[in-house]
Amino acid sequence: METEKEKIFYNALNIVLDSNYAKLSSLREKFPSWEKAFFSLPEEKKKEIEPEKEWEEAKKEKIEMIFKEDALYPNFLLEIPFTPLAIYYKGKLPENCEEFGDKKNNKNTAIVGTRKATYEGKKAAKEFARELAKRGVSIISGLALGIDEAAHSGALEAGGKTFAVLANGLSSVYPRQNYNLTKGIIEKGGALISEYPPKAPPLSYRFLERNRIISGLSSAILIIEAPERSGALATARFALEQNRDIYVVPGPITHINFKGSHKLLREGARIVSSLEELLEDLGLAEETFSVENKVIAQIKNETQKKILEIIKEKTAAVSIDEIINAVKLTAQEVNQELAFLEAEGIIAEEGGKYRIS
To answer: Both 153 and 245 in a single domain?
Structure first.
């Protein structure tokens, strides 16, 4: 109950003070709780808001909050300048911080770039995201049109997790065109994330502020198509300050969408000319990649899981009869599941027998 009360009053302060980080931090230093901090405000300020009502409305929209002191709070964000005092989220964050905070094993990657992306740029973003997600990598981006949208979509196509950091509150989706995309993000086990109160609008300066969270949640940042004044360059600057790896996909030297990208390369960012190159650099090359990580996102039911266990147990390829006998299902049911696993590239058929691909 105490934690819930703290959420009520932090949310109220965040609204009244317009998410002013300096003022919120100052209050936290002066008072032992957000409740006491709220009641320290001038009377006219306190009358501007009904704290319980505001938080109740947020809860009805399935908006949750975690403080930076909470165990669930992403470890990586504790390392960055201006660590968000609390994060609102809609969806499901990991049960522990390992996914975000383990530097040795964290391969979570931010993919960002221009809203006015070319067809080739969006295709590349989707392909990079899809292949990374197949390998258990969570994709972090900002839900904008163009490269961000393609990155989120690619991760979802692979059945993987993706997290969208918004420059507005979680009561609304911006841009509106990506509403269905946000549903997919949540359904596949990811989340929408924001440091702003639920009804906060997407003001221009907030896009810059949220970029530090996009880079902060990631161990590596992939820039695809960044013009000279792209917000992706701000994300790269934050990444540099946060000691994250920065990768850049190059393009034609005369194309406006690559002016910022090439500037980053001149400043020392790592060039990525192929998917294989990035996978190798991140330690995700096929030859060193475990089957468990590769298929975890694509398995749809227990039958598929059993089939894979049977195939993995054998040193040689397995016949369909062996699989049918082991799972106790009809040939039609087994063939249906095998067809799905083969289409996903998880298994391969050779001479009527199956092996892990």
So the answer is: yes
Question: Which domain, by its residues, includes 338?
Answer: 299-356
- At 254-285, the pLDDT tens digits run 899 999 999 999 999 999 988 889 998 888 87
Q: Which of 310, 307, 300 is nearest to 334 (CA)?
A: 307
Nearest of 299, 297, 324, 294 to residue 310 by alpha carbon: 324
Q: What is the pTM of this model?
A: 0.79
Given strand 109-113, what is the order of strands in its sheet? 64-67, 86-91, 191-194, 162-165, 139-141, 109-113, 220-224, 245-249, 270-271
Q: What are phi and psi of 228, to 5 degrees?
A: -60, -35
Pair 295, 308: CB distance under 8 Å? yes
| Closest to 170 measured CA to CA, from 58, 77, 19 | 58
State whether 177 and 315 are in the same domain: no
Tokens of 47: 């009358």
Q: What is the pLDDT of residues 152-187, one digit of tens each?
A: 999 999 989 999 999 999 999 999 999 999 999 999
